[in-house]
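Exercise 7.
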Amino acid sequence: TITYTLYYKNTGNTELKDIILTDYLPNNSITTYYLGSLTQAQDGTITIDYYITEPPGSNITNKAEIIAKTECDETIASSSSLSTYILDKRYILHIPKDYPTIQKTINVARENSTIYVSSGTYQEAITINKGISLIGNNATITAEGLWTDAIRFEGKDTDKATITGFTIIGADGNGISCTNGSPTIVNNRISDMDYCGKGAWGKT
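Solution. The predicted structure, written as tokens, is:
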């Protein structure tokens, strides 16, 4: 979610009333806000949240139009503004709010991102190859039936990675495996691995 603030001001010599803001969002939706009235030289702000659907690095454009009336019901103020927001950094992500699966979220996350995983059971095998923090809130990961490790850390970039707060169960391989990396693994519970699997395993 991106949050942006619009500033508006009455620069005329009369009070404005029935001020209406029409916000044209990048996803082609239109939202209308009633802003009330402004006395002469008075200004105001409005904060708007936009749920991001574009991939990181995209340019998104937002257009806002304001129409107001004088005390005599004459429409005298009509203005529009065009703002561009560059989504070139995505450091905080929430599952499933931003993306439905852990792996998809990891794929779009940038280095040094923090990913918060809400309570629930996620059946997927996860590969981490970058320096991110994965934080679970009563979250369970199971790779049962997928015939692989539940969580795999791969590469030196994962030296800066952290995983905490997860229950990891039912993997047909290892619960957590690390190859050529030394991530921080704390406060996780690993159980019910396949008879050949280990809770945690690593090699360099």
